[in-house]
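Backbone shape codes
____________________
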Amino acid sequence: MTYSLFAEHALLPTGWARDVLLQWTAQGQWQAIVAGQTPTADVPRALGPVLPGMPNLHSHAFQRALAGLTEYRSNPQDSFWSWRTLMYRFAAQLSPGQLEAIATGLYVEMLEAGYTSVCEFHYLHHAAHGQAFAEPAEMSLALMRAAQRTGMGLTLLPVLYQTSGFGGTAPTAGQGRFIHSTDAMLRLLERLQPLCQAQSARLGLAPHSLRAVPPEGLREILLGLDALDATAPIHIHIAEQRAEVDACLAWSGQRPVAWLLDHAPVNARWCLVHATHMDAQEYRRAAESGAVAGLCPTTEANLGDGIFEFTTWQGHQGAWGIGSDSHIAVHPAEDLMMLEYSQRLSLGQRNVAADATQPEVAQALWQGAVAGGAQAAGRPVGGLAPGQQADFIVLDASHPTLTGLPPEMMLASHVFASSRSSAVSQVWSSGQALVQQGRHALHESAMAGLVQARSQLLKG
């Protein structure tokens, strides 16, 4: 069976197209996308321009319940590190049921905003104080249930975490829930692989960071992953903070990205999350490796991380995508706007993400983030093209910010001028209509569950 939709305007990988007939299979893959067609009475019409769904390449789902709760000054030198202390306290008491409730609410929010798949960088493996669950995959399964219930496409990235600092420093008490031996992590991956396949989810791996995985552990886990799936995506936090760069230099004499490129087989399977603090050679070498830069602009701004040199990365034709990370904001338009505005503030220029080949800033941002996000996810979610998954968004052409505009200006207004009033009308994932008139069918119950879980955690 084939399903169809007619769109007056659709954003294809080659750019905007008019009078587009979109067709997808019962399995949720694009079968044909043809421009220049005449609408017929038997094919429904999109109520606005159609965009490819946005992959979210970096998420810590449980942190959505923490968003907004750390915006007070607790330290004269407040930074990522003081925020992390508060986050650890919050994470210490989280149960599988609470994680599932928070993730369910978050994934509903993501879908309503236009994120149609997520890479879940998941490191809360154990019970409080580090005790193992009877089911080692208990917390992973909570995330998988949330994704399946909401319709969110999932790339699950169990995190290997072994040390608290460079040079093999022992883990702290607050990190007990994260810690795995290499063998235990490989057993967890083996347990999860058939479960992910049954759910059409992708399984990958996330060595947390160079400070959390020593060289031998990194080498062994990569060999084990390759034996399990030599194409699995690999994500790693790297060069997020200047203090991390300084500590890596003191340990190895190299900056983090340079060390990784010299000691690991970094290629297009890899996503370098944040990669905020690189020198010129690291920018060039990392881009040439084919790895995706995983940018999280609203989280990086919230934590005071610094500003990624986007124009330098673009100059090397580097792949990139966006993630909502700590979920201080849950909207691709907001993260794309923050990315562009951070560059404008840093460089004293406007329209930085555009170039001579693509002068429309919002279009350049949207298409770049979709392509890089799909690569990082390791799933066929790269846009409106045959063979890709039928993940797409319909903007509301009657939204006051969009009404009467040509499609490229509708997209620009959605990204830069919607004033936190979402112009997303419908969202489809794997060919299923999950959001109608801006609301997911589970909106009320999912939000109530998230609020209840947060209240329980705050009481604790």
Observations:
- The longest strand covers residues 2-12.
- The longest helix spans residues 96-113.
- The radius of gyration is 21 Å.
- The chain has a mean pLDDT of 96.
